[in-house]
Amino acid sequence: QVQLVESGGGLVQAGGSLRLSCVVSGRTFSRNVMNWFRQAPGKEREFVAGITWRSGNTIYVDSVKDRFTISRDNAKNTVYLQMNSLKPEDTGVYYCASAIKWGDYDYWGQGTQVTVSS
Fold this sequence. Notes:
Blueprint: E1 2-7, E2 10-13, E3 18-26, E4 33-39, E5 46-52, E6 58-60, E7 68-73, E8 78-83, E9 92-99, E10 105-108, E11 112-117
Parallel strand pairs: 2-11
Antiparallel strand pairs: 1-3, 3-8, 4-5, 4-9, 5-6, 7-8, 9-10, 9-11
């Protein structure tokens, strides 16, 4: 079992910043990739960013490139999502998800709400 706990969400004005954290515990040794997803009201959950534990390789959805940065702290088993220049369309519940390989998601956190006001 793997447990993922997100934190750091909140209410922020457009143009502001937030940093989300995801603490990973349990049987983490085979989870090679960590990811952030988000789900806006009435919309499907979408991939936001991903990072590999070992090499730190990252990928982003186009809509957040140059604004969001995913990073990891291997010693703390924590993945971060630094979100800058936030826009109202970034509003949603943000979820952390683990994966054995890219696209093969298995465990999810409970989510943290991000609300960006205009």
